[in-house]
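Annex B. Sample input.
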Amino acid sequence: MKKESLVNLDALKELEMGPNWENDNKIKEEQKNGTKKQRIKRRKEYTPKTKNDQNKFFINPLPNFEIITELLNKIRKVAITYEMNEIFDVFVKDKNKLRYKVSWQQEDKNFYITKFDKQIFDKKETLISYVTKYQIGEFFEKEVIEDDNKLPNFDNMLKCPKTNQLLPPKSYHDFERYVFEHIHENNIVMDFEKYCKKLETIKNTNEISDFQNKKKLKHRFTKRNKVNKSYSLMDIKKDISENKSAFYFYEQDTLKLNYEQIQSLKFNVEINFSKIDIKNLLYKNIIIALKQSGFHLIKINKKTYATWMKNKICDFDVLSELSKKIIIQVKRHPLTKKKTLLETINEINTTKETVLLEIKFLVKEGYLREFSDSSIIIA
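Annex B, continued. Sample output.
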């Protein structure tokens, strides 16, 4: 029979951890006048804006469900008792083996996820701009028509810094609609308010007259679901904002993402891992996962271990002679290595394979406890 192998925890942790989760206070030792002096080097204080950004979200790291399930199944099979730090290191040293639960620090705030391509936003206004700019074609048919709404005679107009095209002054009653459509049709990536502040005032009468005499075009939209109603871009913006029947997007108060997904968020710069107590949070979540899976935590020599087996009191009346000798030998020499135990059990007509099988039986029954370094103690 093959010797049962240990769960190779090292095989699950070959990747280096991405975010720096160490303490921000780095202790350095320097030689001075023949003596060592401890000096604490502190990082620069963050600006108020950075601090505000860091406080927006709560990040709770969870072990990837599939990976920890596979790991615990293997541990059950071999019945080895592992130190918590051994299990913990599998996840803490590889950011890709975690799932991050992201939620707002502020109550009653949600994330917005587009229905079409599952893009995530932290602000509804940003999502509306995104859908309006990039996804109108997924929901609407577009038709170009001539605009019969001729502009009044203005003494001055505004000029777009991107296209050099003239736009009506802010006093014009339909200014917002006109400018909004201009931004959209010319693929200008800028917030509406910021864009308006960059517009230049023009008083050249010839330039204004030439622009007013040109034919204007506008776009009319109809929904692809065949509803017999036409929309302007402003109508579409309002329709997205109202989002009836969650047609354009849906809301969630919490996100569950892997590390790569967090990095791809539009607002990922506001999620600062170095200021989050990732290690302690992850340690607690691994303990919760272990207990939910039926594992027990035990303390031995001030260290915490996770085990699948419950302790069982030795009953020599029901154990074989070989089992009794193994248990007696372990009692004499606590933390006996399996190799040493094999060498000390000298039974006539007993092979090493038989002794190994008996040890395995005693471990799985809960009479003995075996650790990852092959040490064995009385359970």
